[in-house]
Amino acid sequence: MSAPDLVAQLATCQADIAALREELEETNKGVVALYAELDDKAAQLRDANELKSRFLSYMSHEFRTPLTSMTSITGILLSRLDGPLTEEQQKQVEFIRGSTRELTEMVNDLLDLAKVEAGRITISPEWFEMVDLFSALRGMFKPIVSSGTVSLAFDEPEGEIKLYSDDKKVSQILRNFISNALKFTQRGEVRVSARLVEDDQVEFAVTDTGIGIAPEHLQTLFSDFVQINVPLQKQLRGTGLGLSLARKFAELLGGRVGVESEVGQGSRFWVRLPLRFHENPQTGLS
Ligand SMILES: Nc1ncnc2c1ncn2[C@@H]1O[C@H](COP(=O)(O)OP(=O)(O)OP(=O)(O)O)[C@@H](O)[C@H]1O
Ligand SMILES: [Mg+2]
């Protein structure tokens, strides 16, 4: 190659390099701008989280304190510590007590949901036996089912099943399933069962002979505030948070929830959980 050719080639190379440098500088500026934006977003997220935490503490204090006093004062009135009540007064106080309980449950559900979302729910795993979980649940529901037309049965699992998980969360998931099953079943039976699946998981199921759920609603049931518009629903209150909380708790425990149902026949809600909770599950079960 001749000298002038070489010079010409060098010049093009230099021009290319200059163009590349310019492009790089531009990209750099872009990256810097993006970083600044990311910082902004992170700050906004921190603020939002801060707000959620503040909301949580307000809610627990400002809402729960008066509710607790209402519960204890109605308890005192009903136990006649402050003198007799007429039949009508007794009904009214019972009504206040019932509404207070409903409101307390609603506040507790909302609080749990907000805690999950703010990442402030802690899982405290320990070893427990399934028979103990079932007998605690049986005790909890005894006063509710003893007088009704629906029976509640627990199928004791074969052999002893031990779980390393958060028993309070597992119990809360099952309580939500059972109270729904009792709510949406007018006659027949609600049955709670458990079985081992795939060696390292346990599946709890709550089966009822209630109103059932149409296929088009099955997908959305586990989302926040979803309630199905059926005649029975209109007589029953609730916020539509029970199942969404159950799903979130199951996921926190490394498991998942599901449902099978047929209108008019009944439903089967299940939760599958690992027998041993892992602090940082790779994928969960799903
Ligand atoms: N066992 C069941 N049989 C029929 N429908 C059910 C059953 N369980 C849940 N559902 C339907 O799913 C909806 C959502 O249930 P979810 O527990 O989330 O809310 P809820 O019971 O209405 O209110 P909450 O649990 O907050 O008091 C219910 O309103 C009901 O329409
Ligand atoms: Mg419910």
Structural features, described:
- With 286 residues, this protein is α+β, with helices and mostly antiparallel strands.
- It has 2 domains: 1-121; 126-274, Heat Shock Protein 90 (2-Layer Sandwich), CATH 3.30.565.
- The protein is 55% helix and 16% strand.
- It contains 6 helices and 7 strands.
- The strands form 2 sheets. A 5-stranded mixed beta sheet has the order 2-4-5-7-6, with helices on one face.
- Helix 1 runs antiparallel to helix 2 (87-117), helix 2 (87-117) runs parallel beside helix 6 (242-252) and helix 4 (167-183) runs antiparallel to helix 6 (242-252).
- Bound molecules: adenosine-5'-triphosphate and magnesium ion.
- Residues 176, 179-180, 238, 242 line the site of magnesium ion (MG).
Question: TL;DR of this structure?
Answer:
With about 290 residues, the protein is of the alpha+beta class. Helices cover about 55% and strands about 15% of the residues. It binds adenosine-5'-triphosphate (ATP) and magnesium ion.
Secondary structure: elements and pairs:
Blueprint: H1 3-78, H2 87-117, E1 126-129, H3 130-145, E2 150-154, E3 162-165, H4 167-183, E4 188-197, E5 201-208, H5 231-235, H6 242-252, E6 256-262, E7 266-274
Parallel strand pairs: 2-4
Antiparallel strand pairs: 1-3, 4-5, 5-7, 6-7
This protein binds adenosine-5'-triphosphate and magnesium ion.
